[in-house]
Amino acid sequence: MASKPNSLVSPLHFSYDRLNGFHIQDRHQAYKRCDPEELHALLIYDEEAAKYTKKGKLRKNPPRHTDPTHHFYSAQLTHYGLPSSTSKQAAKAALLEAYKSEEGLIVPPHILQCEATLRAQHRAKEAKLLEEEEERWRKQCEQEEKQRVKRKRQEDDLVAEIEEAAACKKKQKTDVKPLDIYKLAGSYIIVAPKVSEGWDCEGPLQLKLAPSSTAKHLWGTFNFGVFEGKMRSQSLDTPTKTNRTIRFYWRGRETGEGESTFGPENIAKFKFLPSGSFKGWMYWDSAGKFDIKGKLAEGEDGVGGLEGGVEEWKKGYWALNEANYDRECASRWGGWGGDSDDDEEEENSDTERELEEEGVGREGGEDLDSVREFWGGIEVGFS
């Protein structure tokens, strides 16, 4: 005689989620309702008989079988509305008895109703979460669009101001004073539409410049959202009234993957205007050659607190080199490339490293004086 259905089973016994559907949660394990035929196959499984074929021959590789736990069979009793049992064997016996009964293993109406209710509640909850997520996304898009419009308006105003300053400079060439690199030091507001719009950068692009202790070079640090780095000017031995253009080399990293970039193609060329602004271009392999403009932030002109940062900028610049790049690549793939080469500064290192970077120097048998003479003949600006 089959066991009587357990009418005391309530929705509290069950759960419903996207991964498992309708199930019973027991000891961090979710037990779904097993199909009657699949459950019957488990209940009557004969491990000894499984060792032989239908023709009675011993199998060379009999199938492996692991009988489910007591928790599994107890969960099936609950799924089919049957009374619980205290042992695994008793649970299996109760299920087998119900399967062989006239009604068979059937799910009582009140449990089917419980499943339908939980399913509907789950779908309503997911629909509400989706609606809330869409609303958050809509507000985020609106906010980003407002920020984009505001940034574009600010960039347009800055570009117009710089272009106006450049036009005034052309009209007053006779009044232009020689370039004073100390007055170029400070924090700059940067406009580079190809970068800020192409990569949807958040916040303003940043650049700081300061001269070295000998005023032979102008050093900088920048953060353009998608990439950041340090820059170093060519020798500034011969500033003139007519040529206010400075060529920079830069080394940096992508802010996403952190991959470094360096080499002679990383160049920037800035033409500084008497108004405390500059216009020019910069080359980055991911964007190609792009226009860039900048203006000293109010109250940020002069060396101020930037002078102490130049030494750190130098170390950061020289540390971005081929040896460290190889080490980072090895580390990225789970290997070890050795200790980092910090490439510490030495006396006259700015000049000597500049010569090495440009491929001019001791390999051709030139002495340092002749090389310095070579660089002294190069204009600060270039085409």
What this model shows, in words?
The protein is of the alpha+beta class and 383 residues long. The chain is built from 9 helices and 12 strands. The protein has helices at 36-43, 70-79, 88-100, 109-171, 193-196, 310-319, 322-332, 349-357, 368-376; strands at residues 15-17, 21-26, 29-32, 186-191, 205-211, 218-223, 227-233, 245-254, 260-261, 267-273, 277-284, 288-296. An 8-stranded antiparallel barrel has the order 4-5-6-7-8-10-11-12. Strand 1 (15-17) and strand 2 form a beta hairpin. Helix 2 packs parallel to helix 3 (88-100). The longest helix has 63 residues, at 109-171. The protein is elongated and about 105 Å long. The N and C termini lie far apart (99 Å).
Q: Tell me the strand percentage band.
A: 15-25%
> Tally the helices: what do you get?
9
Catalogue the unreliable spans: 343-348, 358-383
Largest sheet: 8 strands, antiparallel, barrel
Determine the fraction of residues in helical runs and give it as a percent range.
25-40%
Trace the largest sheet across and list its strands. Answer: 4-5-6-7-8-10-11-12
Kindly report the average pLDDT value.
79
How much is the radius of gyration in Å?
37 Å
What is the number of strand segments? Answer: 12
CA(first)-CA(last) distance: 99 Å
Q: Name the overall outline.
A: elongated
| N to C succession of SSEs | EEEHHHHEHEEEEEEEEHHHH
Find the structural class using helix and strand composition: alpha+beta
